Amino acid sequence: MSLISDNLQAVLDDIWATEQRFDRPSKSVRLLAVSKTFGAEAILEAAQHGQTAFGENYLQEALEKITLMQSNAPELHLEWHFIGPIQSNKTKPIAEHFDWVHSVDREKIAVRLSEQRPATMADLNICLQVNISGEESKSGVSPEDVVALALKISALPRIRLRGLMAVPEPTSDVAQQRLAFRHLRELSEKIVAQGISLDTLSMGMSSDLHAAIAEGSTMVRIGTAIFGSRNYAK
Ligand SMILES: *Cc1c(COP(=O)(O)O)cnc(C)c1O
């Protein structure tokens, strides 16, 4: 069994080598460690090896881990990213406990996060999730509607629109992977052309990070390659 710290180093080495391979500036891609379904011990191990940003999908599970980490290891100053589907009646704890939200896909959610973000905290960083592959069941704003949504929410107080996020339909065809990520980058360029400055493309997971980095990802969200495969039955 490999150690989380070894996996973490291997993923970082892979990210840095891929930056070089595709002429991306060194350290221009951040690693978000997706810790959903794994316990606070796993997070602690990664954090003790220098990982600071953690992504979570399930609110209740995330809140328990955030509380635990803050009381047991307050010196670590971890950064928490919510990346799962958002129900509108669950926005308040998200606004109160996270640093980033990658999965905003409608105006109502953004307005609630803006209203509920405590004024004592730094602005909440937001990415709009785009349904890039047009899958019926997937969350995310449609590519046709994302520019209008960005314009609507970019002026809201206490939240800061940073960029776009997508989870494309899984495929092992690297050319297809790149096509989807290129599409997301082009949508982000359209928004920038409207005068909104963005600095984040949240794209790439364990099985498609190379394609994502090739197409301009600035944040890869990696779970399995760091923590191992998830056991949802447990
Ligand atoms: C689970 C998840 C990830 C991590 O996926 P891996 O394939 O385990 O790297 C990334 N992004 C989102 C939105 C996820 O739900």
UniProtKB/TrEMBL annotation:
**Annotated ranges, domain Alanine racemase N-terminal:** 25-230
Query: Quick one: signal sequence residues?
Result: none
Q: Name the residues that span the membrane.
A: none
Which keywords appear in this protein's UniProt record, sorted alphabetically? Pyridoxal phosphate
Q: Report the residues modified as N6-(pyridoxal phosphate)lysine.
A: 36
The source's domain of life comes to: Bacteria
- Family, similarity comment: Belongs to the pyridoxal phosphate-binding protein YggS/PROSC family.
What does the protein in this record do?
Answer: Pyridoxal 5'-phosphate (PLP)-binding protein, which is involved in PLP homeostasis.
Protein name in UniProt: Pyridoxal phosphate homeostasis protein
Q: Which organism is it from?
A: Undibacterium rivi
